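Input (structure):
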């Protein structure tokens, strides 16, 4: 598993507009949640709008991101 910064993770997500990726993050109640999603756009407040399979459009907070899987490569956010 490759270790990357949040800035690098944001760049990877923004560059992956046509393929699904997995993002694992910490919810407000401290539980882990994984989205299988496609990047739609970045907001002014630092969130990413993503299209989640079977759930619709959701906000993804880059500050709570823990793991990312893009193009069969696992990344650990440090």
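Output (sequence):
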């Amino acid at each position: 598993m490759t270790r990357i910064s949040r800035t690098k993770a944001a760049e990877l997500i923004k560059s992956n507009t046509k393929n699904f990726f997995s993002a694992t993050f910490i919810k407000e109640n401290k539980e882990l949640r994984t989205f299988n999603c496609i990047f739609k756009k970045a907001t002014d407040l630092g969130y990413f709008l993503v299209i989640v399979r079977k759930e619709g459009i959701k906000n993804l907070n880059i500050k709570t991101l823990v793991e990312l899987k893009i193009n069969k490569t696992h990344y650990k956010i440090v």
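Notes: The two ends are 12 Å apart (CA to CA). The chain has one helix and seven strands.
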